[in-house]
Amino acid sequence: MSSESYAAVLNPFSEEGKQIVQEAPPFDSLPKSVVERAVERVDWEAGSEVKVGFSEEEVRRETLSFYLMCQSIASVSYPYSNQVQEVIEVSKRTILYRMYDLFKRGEENLCLGVVERDFRVRGLDRDEGVRLGSVDIPQQDIYKLRDLELRKDGIDPDRGEINNEILPQYFPSYAVRWPDLVPLIEHRDLDLTKQYIVEGWALITPKNLWTLFANYVGGMMEDYISDLYDKFSESGPPADILEEVGERISESIPDEVDYGKAGGFESEELKPEAFPPCIEKVLGGVGEGNRNYGIIALLTSFLSYARISPSGKSVNRVADFIDDMSVVEDDIVPLIFEAAEKCNPPLFEDQPQEKANVYYHMGFGMTTKPRMKDSGKTKWYSPPNCRKIKTEAPSLCRPVDLCSEVKNPLTYYYKSLSKGKESEGGD
Amino acid sequence: MEEMREATASERERYYRDEWTSQNLPDYIMHTLSLREFGFDHKGTGPSDRYNQFMTPDMISDYLKERHPYAVYSSVALYERPSERKKWLKSEVAFDIDAKDLPFKECDCTGGGVCEICLENARKVTEEFGKTLSSNLDLEDISYVYSGRGFHIRISDESVMGMGQAGRSQVVEYVTGGVVPSDFTLSLGYSKVFRKRVKRTFEKLDGEKMISEGLRRESVKRIMEEKERVINLIDDGSIENIRDFEGIGPKSFKKLLDLLTRLNSECADGKVTIDKKRILRVPSSLHSTVSRKCVEIKDIKKFHPDEAVPNFLKK
Fold first, then answer.
1. Residues B158, B288 share a domain
2. B252 and B296 co-located in one domain
3. Which ipTM value was assigned to this complex?
4. Domain boundary at B244, B265, B286, which?
5. Which domain covers residue B208, as residue numbers?
6. B275/A contact by beta carbon, under 8 A
7. Angle at CA B161, nearest 5°, toward B160 and B164?
8. How would residue A309 be classed by pLDDT, with cut points 50, 70 and 90?
């Protein structure tokens, strides 16, 4: 088998990978070895079991088991469920390990060949001084970037005890066009402000290039599983074996809840003393430019989630968590309407239609008279992340110490409650 | 500067009849006209007439000459079916720098008012952003527009038009200097962009603003006494040394840095950039609230708002 065909192992979504799937027999007729591999791969640690030889048969089995795993998990789990996330994480680790392994074995060009199909990459020659476009990169920047990367991995560059074998992985050795990295940004796997960009090229270390590529494939997996889920929701999975394999995969992954990471809270009365500063600010009323965002996008989603405290898994409808509209009408909506009244000018005075938008954002459709049976008519919006708030309504963001530990106002709330509980316990 | 006042209905009519022609539409709109959604504000209450599509320049020309709306908008997005806002194809990446909303004021303007000073500050911010977009991020097809009370940057570079919200959001952070970098001292890249933005914001920041944002009066006094030194420290990447000033500890330094970073973000309306389906004033149309033409700018370095005064306002 040619090294080009090996692309399917490093990127199952490559043309070679797709070709293997197109030529494969139906799921029900796949060999047992492929089915077992699809189940086992979720338990893979980064070790010798993830390695794949160059024979046509090995590449084919690996690729088919990957697709079977994706299709199976999509037939039993929601796209952003813990199960799906775990499947993606394991797959990213697998690809990363393979890239490293190949790099170590002198197969850098094989890895680069696969990466270059999706990213425009330039190799940098440090001996001659790094130059990008018309700009010479100062040598001290190269060393600073290396030290930043070392510190990220817990290695202190000032202690002088760095293994010379690993050092090359930490030097910027490639440059990638930053727009090619946008899919990684869209999947929250890369921060543009953390890149060293010169004339449109981002400097990248070998270690980061392999990580970025593994994350890039992970992003494609996320989209693929999400599309499959939509498709299966309409027409059902195309074969029984998918559900069987999906259940087996799912069983081997612990069913944790997302928001529960901060404490696992039951639905209970709101505790305003634990609200983050942005929510406090909106509750006090905001000015014209931020009214709709503050009241509808932020406050409505925050209060409804904080009060109802759903788990992170498969959050679809308010009605899945409460059966009494009084929670909405008495505990959540009055706070929202009061804050809207305090806005300058009061939000509902010139935009009365926004009252219906409050219920719309809680999933009851565009109405001012919601009923529990309407729950799920529209999407129940979750609170925007801190980062989004900072960009869309920077004046609402007045971070305090705890904010640096969280990425979402809701996590702040749970964390703050959790700290409150800890201190109560200590008294 | 010519007076800024609301245009009358007859002045709007005169403008679209005598002064405006479809030739004034910029190329990037003209070439994609039929793929854009158009929105109109007929009464000065906001663009409530949406989902309009024009297949040819003559069609929009006839419409404007007949209806002479209060304001004309078009989408940054291109759609297969713009009259339904469906089948999204791609969107320009747009920045909105509103002179009235800049976080620093060097004049007495209040409310929605703007003067030559605010507009010049907004122009400089626009120029800075444009430079980062074109040199550092190496984007092409960047257009600048004077919108009447501020500026728009519109990017039609193919490499970024397909970006989603997260990508757009990070471009805003990068260009405005809205995030503290991992290392202040790197000579190039985002570190340099951040230093420039923080320096500009700090230079324009007054002590009272810092106090109102929660910094201690004594710390602010010290910072203002050492203003030149602070600027030098920002310039050479040693900004963290501010916390070693007498009377300024890590907490005050963090507050100052958070404040400067947030004010950097407020120089552009991030909501506009992130929104792929946003509508923006059409260059060449009339901003009737202030009687100014929304104009495409040839050279942002040399632009003066007087270039946007419509004939009906000229003596």
1. yes
2. no
3. 0.93
4. B265
5. 189-265
6. no
7. 85
8. low
Mean pLDDT of chain B: 94
Q: pTM of the full predicted structure?
A: 0.82
Cβ contacts (< 8 Å) between B189 and chain A: which residues? Answer: 141, 195-198, 203
Q: CB neighbours of A126 closer than 8 A, spacing ≥ 6?
A: A142, A171, A173
- Chain A nearest C-alpha distance from B205 (Å): 16
Q: Do B159 and B193 belong to one domain? A: no
Cα dihedral sign for A226, A229, A235, A238?
Answer: positive
Structure tokens given for B2 = 């010519």
Query: In terms of domains, do B119 and B42 share one?
Result: yes
* Contact in structure between B71 and B285 (CB atoms under 8 Å): yes
Same domain, B236 and B148: no
Question: Across the interface, do A194 and B182 touch by the CB < 8 Å criterion?
Answer: yes
CA dist A91 and A384 (Å) reads 28
- B98 flagged as catalytic: yes
User: What are A409's two structure tokens?
Assistant: 């106002």
In a domain, B169, yes or no: no
The confidence score (pLDDT) of residue A259 equals: 39
Q: Give, for A218, the enclosing helix (H) or strand (E).
A: helix A206-235
Domain locations in chain A as residue ranges: 7-114+215-251, 118-212, 259-426
CATH number, residue B69: 3.90.920.10
Distance from C-alpha of B269 to C-alpha of A411, rounded to nearest angstrom: 26
Residues A52 and A44 sit within 8 Å (Cβ to Cβ): no
Instruction: Name the domain count of chain B.
Output: 2
Tokens representing A181? 């990295």
- Weakest-pLDDT range from A131-135, A157-161, B199-203: A157-161
- Containing B16, the helix (H) or strand (E) segment is none
Of the given ranges (A2-16, A25-39, A159-173, B27-41), which has the lowest mean pLDDT?
Answer: A159-173
Spell out the alpha helix ranges (H) of chain B: 9-14, 27-30, 57-67, 116-131, 158-161, 165-176, 189-204, 207-212, 217-225, 227-235, 250-265, 270-274
CB of A203 closer than 8 Å to CB of A137: yes
- Same domain for B151 and B21: yes
Contacts of residue A119 in chain B, CB cutoff 8 Å?
none
| Binary contact (B190, A195; C-beta < 8 A) | yes
pLDDT of residue A103: 86
Contacts 24+ apart (CB under 8 A), A377-382: A380/A304, A380/A315, A380/A316, A380/A317, A380/A318, A381/A297, A381/A300, A381/A301, A382/A301, A382/A305, A382/A315, A382/A410
Does the distance separating the beta carbons of B172 and A391 come in below 8 Å? yes
| Better-scored residue on pLDDT, B48 or A266 | B48
Does a structural domain hold residue B184? Answer: no
